[in-house]
Specification:
By secondary structure, the protein is of the alpha+beta class. It has nine helices and 19 strands.
């Protein structure tokens, strides 16, 4: 995928709130704009799209200046495709005609985004004859994404695309969205306040709070420190994030490799051997044993050694950091009583126990 920079240096005040962001995003894959409600995420997306005007600043996409003190390229000429939370399909048209409308109006029909390819990628064939009023929330978002892709934008902007969807529909839509940048050579910014959604989707993360950027970087790096960032409004549990490789599939189960460790969980998302899945393992879901347990229902038992034990402020808990090899770190949150009764110490060999059900979100 072609990598391009989006430079954003904008200020925007509105009803006592001020957005002030100065960041350069190297767009490759999906960049999640993450933070609590009221952080300025959607406001930033609208400024990028040209749906709102900064008080002052600069926005450029590659070599194209979209906004500065002399230039304000209108939204339709920026060609940044914006997916609204409602989907915004034409209610009087079928899904097929919604797609055809975008396809015919596109200025870049030669850019390799074919109508049939979009229908296949988003599994829209069963929906083509239906009107928007008959679609579920997940179906509406898939159809709206299809229409947006067929407008052939240069940049995809998704404003909380999972809003209102239940867990099953989210699990259906997430892998489809994740695949779009690679399939259509199209960078994407996606707004969210859901850490599990961001974990599944993001290649990079920009965190906003109170209108300002608090962190920006590769997804795994940011996610592994996210519980220590000033995001108390989101009540994020501490955890460890990995890109785990599918190493084996047997019946309805798959084996994942994380460093030298192996995890087992139900096969999902039509994953194949050699592909990767992003996992976020909450510290509270990791139990510890000083000897390898036998005759228990927990199937995931990872061997490692303790590299650090730290207290958590104003709580009776300790965070235990465990090396799994190959620079892979897992964290467990246990009580002071557990630390003392197991006589845990730095450098000690340890077994981390993880319930398979805790990985299914």
């Amino acid at each position: 995928m072609t990598q391009i920079e989006l430079k954003i240096h904008v200020q925007k005040a509105h009803d006592g709130f001020k957005l002030d962001v100065n960041e350069t995003l190297s767009l490759k894959g999906i960049t999640a704009v993450f933070g609590p409600s009221g952080a300025g995420k959607s406001s930033l997306l609208k400024l990028i799209a040209g749906l709102d005007i900064p008080d002052n600043g600069h926005i450029s996409f590659g070599d194209e200046i979209w906004y500065d003190d002399k230039i304000n390229i209108p939204a339709q000429k920026r060609e940044a495709g914006y997916l609204f939370q409602s989907g915004a399909l034409f209610s009087h048209l079928s899904v097929r005609d919604n797609l055809r409308f975008a396809d015919k109006r596109s200025k870049h029909i030669q850019n390799g985004v074919p109508l049939n390819g979009v229908i296949k990628a988003l599994d829209l064939a069963p929906l083509l004859a239906r009107k928007p009023a008959t679609l579920s929330g997940g179906e509406t978002q898939r159809a709206a994404l299809g229409r947006l892709l067929l407008s052939r934008p240069k940049l995809l902007l998704l404003d909380e695309p999972m809003t209102g969807l239940d867990r099953a529909k989210k699990r259906e839509l997430l892998p489809l969205i994740k695949s779009l940048p690679a399939q259509f050579n199209l960078p994407c910014l996606s707004v969210s306040h859901d850490v599990d959604e961001v974990t599944a989707l993001a290649d990079h993360i920009l965190i906003l709070k109170d209108g300002r950027a608090k962190a920006h970087g590769p997804a795994i790096e940011i996610l592994n420190q996210i519980d220590r960032l000033p995001l108390s409004d989101l009540n994020i549990d501490p955890g460890s994030v990995f890109d785990a490789k599918v190493s084996k599939i047997v019946n309805d189960m798959m084996e994942l490799t994380i460093g030298k460790a192996k995890l087992s969980l139900p096969h999902q998302n039509n994953l194949r051997i050699g592909e990767y899945i992003r996992l976020r393992i909450r510290s509270q879901d990791v139990s510890l044993a000083t000897t390898q347990p036998k005759n228990i229902s927990i199937q995931n038992c990872l061997a490692g050694h303790i590299t650090q034990i730290t207290t958590t402020s104003d709580t009776p808990f300790y965070d235990v950091t465990i090396s799994l090899g190959d620079d892979k770190i897992l964290k467990s949150r246990v009580t002071r009583q557990a630390i003392e009764s197991l006589n845990l110490s730095k450098g000690q060999a340890i077994f981390a126990l993880i319930k398979t059900a805790s990985l299914e979100r």
